[in-house]
From TrEMBL:
Domain of life: Bacteria
Name of the molecule in the record: Helix-turn-helix domain-containing protein
Domain HTH cro/C1-type, first and last residues per copy: 29-84
Range of residues in the leader sequence: none
Species of provenance: Pedobacter helvus
Organism placement in taxonomy: Bacteria, Pseudomonadati, Bacteroidota, Sphingobacteriia, Sphingobacteriales
PROSITE patterns registered for this protein in UniProt: HTH_CROC1 (PS50943)
Amino acid sequence: MSLDFSDKMAKSKNIKKLPKDIKKIGLRLRAIRKNLGYGNSDEFANKYELDRAQYGKYETGSQDFRMSSLIKILDSIGYRLSDFFNEDYDNIEI
């Protein structure tokens, strides 16, 4: 049995649906990058030797990622998890 186009689209949307906290993490990463004086994610990723395309997806909240990836990014800029998940994070509205 094959799926019709609408079934395939529905299945595709379910796969890409990520928890809203993924978007919040991305917005928090973007705010930190901007506070550090980096105008775009490519410049930031190059400076800290991160994959540019992947990091851009993290910031937009369009890509799920492992906790180890977040820790690597935070370590590279001298942030602890407690610095990241603070009241600034809590105040992000989606």
